[in-house]
Design brief:
Distance between the termini: 38 Å
Oligomer: single chain
Order of helices and strands: HHHHH
Radius of gyration: 20 Å
Largest sheet: none
Number of domains: 1
Structural class: mainly alpha
Amino acid sequence: MRRVYVIYTVRELTSPLSLKVITFGVCFLVVNSVVSLPQVFLNMPSVTDVSALSKFASSAFAHTDTAVKILTIAGAGLMVWAGRDVARTVSSRNAFAHSGARA
């Protein structure tokens, strides 16, 4: 039975969504090791001041290392891609759940 659990776990960990989430986690950990995120949040203006927040984000992104820029863009892209996969999965399951079945 242990082999069944191992095979199931390996299949789940190598699914496309899992690989995207794991890759995002690696990107996050690398960025976190280079950038002091608590200091970024301390320096950040209030989230209610949208123009100052936008200015801060663009300035912070423009003045960071190239590796951090690449990892940030990759992480954001992976999350959008994973979100799209989740939305497709949810909508396809809802479509099958309501496909002409009458109670």
